[in-house]
Write a structure and sequence with these properties.
140 residues, elongated, mainly beta, 5-stranded antiparallel β-sheet
Length: 140
């Protein structure tokens, strides 16, 4: 009979680092509360402030065709951009100097909401106010 003794060693733990394969961004709930406007522009960073024409013109995202619109006054879930001022809502009309000028300019957080094959633009005038924008605690 051949009996071999097992050599005892101290217990070992192998530690493996977890590296996620995908990252989940925070989702926000934001209220669309823009006051009366005809145009929405996204700030392009070329020149501070609203630029409606010229080589530094901001990106026109929504043109109402001359009809005065206002925000839908609803909360939107699933906004995946951090709410911060990134655009403008305004009216544009003739200037007494000739040409056109923007007036009733609102600094807004501007986002696009997907609606199946279509989309819609919304704006929030005060995204730092917790009554208008907050992190969705149930986001996954």
């Amino acid at each position: 009979m051949n009996i071999q003794k097992e050599k005892w060693g101290s217990p070992r733990i192998e530690v493996q680092r977890f590296t996620p394969q995908e990252f989940i961004t925070a989702c926000y709930v934001v209220k669309c509360n823009v006051k009366s406007f005809n145009y929405m522009y996204m700030e392009n960073g070329k020149q501070p402030g609203l630029q409606i024409s010229g080589e530094n013109a901001d990106d026109l995202k929504f043109d109402t065709g001359g009809v005065s619109y206002h925000g839908c006054d609803k909360f939107h879930k699933g906004v995946n951009k951090n709410p911060s001022i990134n655009g403008y809502a305004c009216k544009i009309g003739p200037s007494w100097l000739g040409g056109t000028h923007a007036y009733n300019i609102q600094n807004i957080f501007l986002w696009e909401q997907a609606l199946g094959a279509d989309s819609d633009w919304h704006g929030c005038t005060d995204p730092t106010n917790p009554n208008f924008a907050y992190t969705n605690p149930n986001a996954s």
